Amino acid sequence: MDYELRESVPTPESFVALREAAEMGTRSVEAATQALPNTLYGVSLLEKKSGETVGMARVVGDGGCYFQICDVVVDPAHQGGGLGSWMMDAVMEFLTENAPETAYVNLIADVDGFYEQWGFKPTAPESQAMYLLM
Ligand SMILES: CC(C)(COP(=O)(O)OP(=O)(O)OC[C@H]1O[C@@H](n2cnc3c(N)ncnc32)[C@H](O)[C@@H]1OP(=O)(O)O)[C@@H](O)C(=O)NCCC(=O)NCCS
Questions:
Q1: Quick check: CB of 81 below 6 Å from ligand 1?
Q2: Among residues 111, 7, 24, 23, which one has the least CA distance to residue 59?
Q3: Backbone angles phi, psi at 35, to 5 degrees
Q4: Who has the most CB within 10 Å: 7, 22, 34, 77?
Q5: Structurally, how many domains does the chain consist of?
Q6: Which of 43, 56, 58, 79 to mutate to test the pocket of ligand 1 (most atoms within 8 A of CB)?
């Protein structure tokens, strides 16, 4: 196995770099420094030969009623090899063990055909996810 999955979030710098590499919305190192310690559960993927962080995923929320999966990202150079699924399996194991039966687990999907594998469904038409960028 060329990669190691660690049950911890990456550094703020790696977090920002990963999101940038995958062309996801920009987050500042300052915001990440404030945010990452508030993670309920996080995973990082390390490429063994380089020691570089090439993926991450995390869960935030109140630990009882609401859980949000966010920052699921694999560096483009390492995509398509099952790494995203590996991290999502770990996230789902955490949720299965720690989220109460009535918990509402949500995420904003940027891709079609990935999260469905773990049972996620669109909120529409019953409801519609909304957002606001400060
Ligand atoms: C989405 C992402 C995390 C998937 O990681 P990955 O390591 O490439 O995923 P896997 O190799 O485990 O893919 C498993 C399956 O998911 C599906 N899948 C993966 N990425 C997909 C994509 N971008 N679009 C559609 N389906 C996708 C495929 O069915 C794939 O099966 P296949 O390999 O038989 O084709 C990765 O593409 C990524 O970081 N994308 C950019 C950032 C992003 O959009 N993150 C999601 C934010 S909500």
A1: yes
A2: 7
A3: -80, -45
A4: 22
A5: 1
A6: 79
- Please report whether residue 130 resides in a domain: no
* E-state strands within the chain: 3-6, 41-47, 53-61, 66-74, 104-106
Nearest atom within ligand 1 for CA of residue 24: 42
Tell whether 128 is covered by a domain: no
* pLDDT tens, residue by residue, 27-74: 999 999 999 999 999 999 999 999 999 999 999 999 999 999 999 999
Confidence (pTM): 0.96
For ligand 1, whether the C-beta of 22 sits within 6 Å is: yes
Domain region containing 16: 3-118
CA of 112 to the centre of ligand 1 (A): 9
Q: Does residue 124 sit within a domain?
A: no
Cβ of residue 24 lying under 6 Å from some atom of ligand 1: yes
